[in-house]
What does this fold into?
Amino acid sequence: MKVRDLMIRDITAVFADQKVEDVIKICSKQFFTGLPVVDEEMKVIGFISESDIISGAVPSYYSMLQSASFIPDTNQFKGNLERIKDKPVSEFMTKPRIVKESDSAIYAADLLIRNGWRMLCVVDDEEKLVGLVTRMQLLWGIIRNKNSER
Amino acid sequence: MEVLTVTMNPALDREFFVDDFEINKLHRIFDLSRMDMTPGGKGINVSMALANFNVKSVALGVLAGYTGRVIEEELRKYSSLITTNFVHTDGESRENITIVDEKNHTITEINAPGPVLDDESIEQFFRRYLMTLSRVSYVVISGTVPPGIPLDFYRRLSKAATDKGKTVLMEARGQLLTNAVLSDSCPKIVKPDLRAEKKCLGKELNTLEDYIDMSKTILENGAELVILSYEIIKDVVATREGIWLLDTLLDVDISHVLGTGDTYVAAILYYLLRRNKNMFEASKFGYTAAVSKLKYSKKIFPTIEDIESIRDKIKVERIA
It folds into this structure.
């Protein structure tokens, strides 16, 4: 099975100069956990996930803590989020998470599981965005395929 | 992706087939095949019809709320040849309810308004539109717009596409169409939407002569093909080579008219993409496709085979 057999053909994305708040709005309205970052020619240049935004809104030492109880109250998180919401996506995005339509589903699954990612951008030969694949889409695609083989 | 379709006011189309439909009466439907729910709005319909012709397209527009998500999901399910790229905004996308009475040949429609768009959503849409233009050769701008959209919006879309060398097909009405046609970036293919009123560019269309004059006016503004619906089933088609009246020899049921205009548009694009660039022949093929759609009661789009099977049932008369 190939990525093209289970991908979602949606090219919702943000530009690097858009605000973090735009990402939060789009993801919450469309139930995405992250978004591809593209240039004006639709080439994928990065990825911004909910984790990237959360990391930007909590103190840098947070990842070293075992519990969130060390953070005095949610106001601190709220204040930090308020501070970064107008900042550009480029400050928080990470490297592109891409697969090609012709890649195998197993390869996509390996990338998602090994890196702990929830979503991958699907690109064409020019690395332009053509869709996305999520963990759940992968599972659904495998089940659907198994059922159709019966 | 070969075609970009714009639907600023998508809808969830709900069709109910009720014989002897009457107002002030309860009508129960027991047979599920007598009702249908499909994503709609003119551009979306064109994408769906194109998928039937095996043409890839990307559907752009603005969706809102729960209905918006249903529209998007249904569209993705319809065909893997359709890519979606919608801006989601606050509010709720509209529902179009159609009650078809096949027994008495009536069609009753209730079209809800769409969400009110703010400037931010409009600009977000426009930026995505510009980005996606680089991937296609044809652009379809059609349908109504929700409140909040400026009246020069279609002109702006047409200009951006024309500047990038794309061929624009526009099916619209009112000031949105007028502003686009009477600009320096008039769409190459213009199909005024005359369903609500027989009026185009502010002028009433009554006689066949009015239709001919209007076609000439639009051609003079830069269009290469003009299609004007005339007396429900006929069409006045104008290119720089002449003006024709198209009619069908078939006895057709006009209560199945939903989606015929969009089939027409999709078939024109199919012809231009897969056969040749002759505008008149493309419009003849489009007209034939629209007639072939009439055999389907629900919003089911015809196949190329359906269209080919009735190509000899079209009457062509040169009128200018």
